[in-house]
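Q: Sequence in, structure out?
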Amino acid sequence: MTITAALDDLIDRYLAAYQAAAVPLVTEANDAWQAPIYTAAVGSEDTVTWQPVRQQRALDFSDLMNALEEPFHPDFVAYFSRWFSADLAVDWESHPLWLLHLHGDDDAERMLANQAGHVLMKRRLKQPITLFLGLAEESDDLLITLDNENGAVGLEFVGQQQHEILAPSLEEFLRKSTPRVVANDEAIG
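A: Exactly. Output:
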């Protein structure tokens, strides 16, 4: 299975889980963004329902990779070049996780700047380069990262090296992640 097929399957399973639980997909909106995933306001102005939307043109990482003189692992590029979506709540074995996604092009610019900062920090600390994919729910500074050298998905605390490998590949990680339905007040924020 390819990364895109594994990600498409996860998105399908995620939508099905929410539909089966009769829980709407809700996220916090950034009203400065023209995000294609936002479908309708819910209650307050900054809360919206959303639907994943396939990117019309894949996110271009070339400027950032050239500036950093660091090619990014193709699995990482494929992951962020497929869908616009809100973050996805998933379980990986005993870990409740949030997989980051891009609401739209404006959010993509923010993510690229954050990835640049992460790579520069890893260089300064003389650690292997990782690229972050999400956050663990158990701690705000526990990141889900992809090893840029070998593609392994693992957990690392900010400023530290991966200390736990979750899967040897992003494809396997996505395939084995289980969608987690969260109440709307938990999904916002």
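The domain at 3-185 is CATH 3.40.1580.20 (SMI1/KNR4-like).
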